[in-house]
Amino acid sequence: MGKFNAKNEEIASLKAKRTNDTEHVLVTGAAGFIGSNLCAHLVSGGNMVYGVDNFITGEKKSTARLLEEENFRFFEIDIVSDDFLKKFSKLPLKKIFHLACPTGVPNIKKLPEEMLMVSSIGTRNVMEVAKACGAKVVFSSSCEIYGQPEKFPQDENYAGNVDPVGPRSPYEEGKRFSESLIMMYVKKYGVDADIVRLFNGYGPGMRLEDPRVIPRFLKSVFSNKKPVVYGDGNQTRTFLYVDDLVNGLVRVMESGSKGNVYNIGSVEQVSINELSEIMSEIVDWKGGVEHREHFIDDHCARQPSIEKIRSLGWRKKITLRKGIEKTVEYFLNEQKNKIMNK
Ligand SMILES: NC(=O)c1ccc[n+]([C@@H]2O[C@H](COP(=O)([O-])OP(=O)(O)OC[C@H]3O[C@@H](n4cnc5c(N)ncnc54)[C@H](O)[C@@H]3O)[C@@H](O)[C@H]2O)c1
Questions:
Q1: Active-site residue (options: 146, 171, 185, 262)
Q2: Is 208 helix (H, G, I), strand (E, B) or coil?
Q3: DSSP string, 39-65
Q4: Ligand 1: distance of its center to the CA of 112 in Å?
Q5: Is residue 264 in contact with ligand 1, taking CB distance under 6 Å?
Q6: Which of 59, 249, 250, 276 matches a 20 to 30 Å C-alpha distance to 38?
Q7: Are 74 and 67 in contact (CB under 8 A)?
Q8: Cα(102) to centroid of ligand 1, in Å?
Q9: In Å, how far from its chain's centre is CA 47?
Q10: pLDDT-derived band of residue 120, with 50, 70 and 90 as boundaries?
Q11: Is the minimum distance from the CB of 119 to ligand 1 under 6 angstroms?
């Protein structure tokens, strides 16, 4: 049985149990949307997985099923803390997926300090752990580091167009600082690390309360309310199903060469209006949408260049329609379980 909040003594015994054939992997942000999907994938692959999270945006129930697995341990801990650094520097880690960071544009207003701290001290702590253990790091950065892009598509050499003191800067500059810090550890200390710039992901494991566009839309429909579309809805985004995203992270961990940056995303541009139409069709919603002015400056379009990740053999497999169908099914099951457990 996996453990919630495993204790120090247990860490010592896990250290002693080190074997050559089991890979010990740390996932920060394990109770989040991507983290919980990634942990499930790694656990099913036979790795010894340590998940850490402080639940600032994640949920306990995301990892509940995984706690039944022998090769999963969960630690409720803030990666900004010294405690994290002390505990995890002692583990026989080979790989670290560093995902911890509050996400979603509305969180930029709510949690700016937490974003900046986890992106600076949190990332420093993760890199110190990697240095101590000799582990490879894959860091989940974001397409937000490109800001309001003036180049399409955005390739990994594009430096972006970001306002360092603008309303989105706690997230954008936080991620940019993390990237810079990681590259410093690669160059100065020889730590093996790659950076992955994720474009929008979606799928099962998202919370219905998540303020990002797909769950927000579905939550409104499920409560029989008109979903809100910010602006005129012509702004475009690209959406990648979470299984494809997780495969991309794993692909970079396995085959990415040291100190590289890889975009991961879908290249299919979809406007928020088109996305709303697809979702309305799938859930048979005929009530339309309500347009409102955006509460924070919105970026009108983004599009990744994915040549680098493709050169590692990665391909997107799930279409947007199929992915949304699977996501709707997931949310409906969640709703059903909630009612049954009341
Ligand atoms: N989902 C996307 O579309 C997307 C796009 C671009 C980048 N990303 C990046 O991928 C990562 C995961 O995103 P997600 O969508 O799963 O977000 P999420 O908010 O669902 O998960 C992030 C997790 O990190 C945890 N966390 C935050 N600060 C922490 C701290 N100090 N210590 C320990 N845990 C902490 C949160 O509680 C949460 O469980 C984030 O770094 C995010 O910036 C995601």
A1: 171
A2: coil
A3: HHHHHHTT-EEEEEE--SS--GGGGTT
A4: 14
A5: no
A6: 276
A7: yes
A8: 5
A9: 20
A10: very high
A11: no
- The CATH number of the domain covering residues in 3-199+241-264+303-316: 3.40.50.720
Nearest CA to ligand 1 atom 32: 78
Q: pTM to 2 decimals?
A: 0.93
Q: How far is the CA of 31 from the centre of ligand 1 (A)?
A: 9
In this predicted model, what pLDDT tens digit does every residue of 122-164 receive, in sequence order?
Answer: 999 999 999 999 999 999 999 999 998 999 999 999 999 999 9
Helix count (H) and strand count (E) of the chain? 12, 14
192: left (phi over 0), alpha (psi -120 to 50) or beta: beta
Mutate to test the pocket of ligand 1, among 177, 198, 200 (most ligand atoms within 8 A of CB): 198
pLDDT in tens, 57-112: 999 999 999 999 999 999 999 999 999 999 999 999 999 999 999 987 889 999 99
339 band by pLDDT with thresholds 50, 70 and 90: confident
| 229 Cβ contact partners less than 8 Å away, ≥ 6 residues apart | 272, 273, 276, 289, 290, 291, 292
Q: In angstroms, what CA-CA distances link 6 with 25, 26, 37, 97, 213? A: 15, 14, 21, 19, 35
Residue 171 annotated as catalytic: yes
